């Protein structure tokens, strides 16, 4: 079973996303902050992370950058901000791709499956 880390400060968003992936057979852990996410990756091996870029305090871009110093699992940057600069920064920091929310559940599932199959 593939293990995903879902990082978003919006508890409703992270729970809906978790439910979607658990229904598809994934093992999902959630984190509501940068610090929480770092603690989770220290405790468990993940196959992929989906990280919201806008969070209070230390944002998702900094988290992606930090994770890339230690881990090679695929990272999806998940954001409501649909600008070229935001997407470019996430990719430069180490995200494999950027998905703008809201998005269809199928797009998110297909992207995760594609990234996991190319490992």
Explain what you see.
- The structure is a single chain.
- With 119 residues, this protein is α/β, with parallel strands linked by helices.
- The chain has one domain: Response regulator (Rossmann fold, 3-Layer(aba) Sandwich), CATH 3.40.50.
- It is built from 5 helices and 5 strands.
- The chain has helices at 11-23, 34-43, 60-68, 84-93, 105-117; strands at 3-7, 27-31, 48-52, 75-79, 97-100.
- The chain has a 5-stranded parallel beta sheet with strand order 2-1-3-4-5, with helices on both faces.
- Strand 3, helix 3 (60-68) and strand 4 (75-79) form a beta-alpha-beta unit.
- The longest helix is centred in the first third of the chain and has 13 residues, at 11-23.
- It is globular, with a radius of gyration of 13 Å.
- The mean pLDDT is 91.
Compact description:
It contains 5 helices and 5 strands, in the order βαβαβαβαβα. The chain has 119 residues and is of the alpha/beta class. It has one domain: Rossmann fold.
Which terms summarize this structure?
Rossmann fold; globular; 119 residues; single chain; five-stranded parallel sheet; 5 strands
Mean pLDDT value: 91
| CATH structural architecture | 3-Layer(aba) Sandwich
Distance between the termini: 15 Å
Strand content: 15-25%
CATH superfamily: Response regulator
Name the strands of the widest sheet in spatial order.
Answer: 2-1-3-4-5
Main beta sheet: 5 strands, parallel
Helix fraction? 40-55%
Helix/strand-derived category reads alpha/beta
Q: Which regions contain 5 or more consecutive residues with pLDDT less than 50?
A: none
Coarse morphology: globular
